[in-house]
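>> received
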Amino acid sequence: MKVIKYKGDRLEMLNIEQYSVIYPEQLWLYFSEEDKEKAWSTEHKYSNDAPRWNAFLNRLCLNKVTEWLQGDSGFKVAVCPSDEALSSIWEVVNGTAMQLGKTRWILIPSEASDTEEFCVPQEWVDIPSWAGNYYLAVQINLLENWLRVWGYATHQRLKSQGMYDKFDRSYSLDGENLINDLNVIWVKQELSPHETEATLAVIEALPQVSTIPVEQLLEKLSQPSPYSPRREIPFTQWAILIADDQCRQKLYERRQELLVQPTTIKASAKKTVNLSKWLHNVFEDSWQSIESLFGTEEAKLAFGFRDRRIEKYKFEVIKQLIDQIYTSRDEEQRKQAAEKLGKSGTGDQNVIAALIHLLNTTDDQETRWTAAESLWTIDPDNPVAGIKRITDLGMQLAGNPVALMVGILPKPLHKLAILLRVYPMGSKNYLPEALQLKILDNEGDLFLETQARKADNFIQLKFSGSPGDEFSIKIGIDNVQITEYFVI
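>> returned
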């Protein structure tokens, strides 16, 4: 990992060791390939890839934090409610509870590079038997093999200051409202015997499990789906169900039995593309990198990159554009600077650093995509720029050769920003006029569309989605349509 620090008129490239020196109060833990293999090998009995990956991240996080606690301070760590129960929890919820004496820690791991917000699933906050004293924000970097605890919050702070997202069923805090130094936990407890009690907010007790139609709910929640069913029934019913060890185990077992076969059949029949897998470099056979499909500059030009003209800017101009990204408060100016840097054709590290900084700091999606596309041009393999893949649709549209490109950028809360583009292929310079690109939701209802005009060398649509969202893309002209199916 390289961290960029801006000082006056120069940029400094910092490695992870230097970064840990700058933020010594944060906990930095390294893990090996063997650690990853061990975490993965113990987590394989899940209904599909989404909970399996969630379990892998949580297991890796739990193993390393436990190892640190036992080695550094000699604490005895107990998993809550038990290690055997973790699979049934990770099947549907992100997070792990661990007991250290009289205090309970809740680990919330995330691969997101954005640490401006800490998000905690509602289950860990509003279920009395699950709630903890301290909630630890854990960032995991699987490419560089490290994790860091970049802050923590108490249960009381999450309830009193956290923003509740009714749709996502989560509480979130701005990063600036977290405490960075874990040592503060020990200091407070030593100074105040009642510190543990003070960390907990008052929450209502849940009704008994006998007050809900358990069998009906288990039947509903066990239906095939590539995502957690945690939002499919009212939260109180959901909380009662999963707080009960036996009910949660039944749900886990039923989902494991019912989901594997139907999901495989559905994906095979529709050839559904799983975009979340792309984040882990797992791609369907028909989706290629742009570089593998177009190996020469002439091919790239035919592909529709004519707007990527190289502009030879002077050093002073490039420096000014970099300064604009770091210092300007005008989002349009920052976006324009990113676009110009992409057209500069230079792979200078300062330019790349500025574009990465913009990607990690802006909330404007148009600006983020502009920065990503500029990185695609000057540093195509940079992992911060998201992922793009293309599939050649051939001559299927009434003799018009076209290709579909899909680009994805991770967002907070595990959401994805998605870019769709249709390009002309072969000797064609422009798309046929009136060619349509449509996006439909999982019910088949249209929610975005665009159409090629005269002399368009591509058309595009952008939107965002959450894990488990399903949609389809229709590309059509003259009553001929191609449909591609996707799930996030």
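>> Residues 192 and 198 are 10 Å apart (CA to CA).
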